[in-house]
């Protein structure tokens, strides 16, 4: 990974807690590849072209892209591949795949790769850009004494001022009288199966609430330049992560869905947040 401040190299971390949407992700991969030996190992002809492909995807959104295509040469074995991905396209967990592929058609023989793009070898890394922990204050309160529905598990307070700091505009209230949610939050690092279900439901519900707050605000759009760490910037980030396929039309379609078909909007958010996909 390329450090954005020093431009020096450092190992790829599991997570980047300091990352934000205004920071591009720069990665460098060093590979030692003997093209002739690779061809021999998989039964290809000596003149079959090979290449290294690097591609990225964002989990759980459908956003993905090609980052690099490097043809291999027989007289070169050491390769340095630099990749830069715009921060505004990222969020959640970014997966980067490095793949050795056929760059031309292979021979027509049994059990030998033949189609262009066939995967001969691959390596994958994942970097968490947004962790499971909330990015805003959380407080335990007794709902029975706070005027909130006393059997509810959580309540998300969120303001209307898009230019206010997110830390000041958002607060997650947890019902301290709700034993299952309190226990699940206390075991985030080592959750039980029940905890995973509860945490998945909470993440999905909080995401839906925040997306709805953005969509119902006429002043919110994806072209506005909100200040770093403002509520507007956080909501834009959520849109890029969970509603990536609706961003290009400046949210017109997803606003229409929410206004006219609430069940479809709810199902869309469930799918985008991998609701109850506890095996992940």
Structural summary, described in words:
By secondary structure, the protein is of the alpha+beta class. The chain has 2 domains: 25-128; 138-272, no CATH class. It is built from 7 helices and 9 strands. The strands form 3 sheets. The protein has a 4-stranded antiparallel sheet with strand order 3-2-5-6, with no helix packed on it. Helix 4 (193-215) packs across helix 5 (231-242). The longest helix is centred in the C-terminal third of the chain and has 23 residues, at 193-215. It is elongated and about 75 Å long. The mean pLDDT is 85.
Largest sheet: 4 strands, antiparallel
Q: Uncertain spans, ≥5 residues at pLDDT below 50?
A: none
**Beta-strand residue fraction:** 15-25%
Look at the structure and give the mean pLDDT.
85
User: Given the structure, what is the number of helices?
Assistant: 7
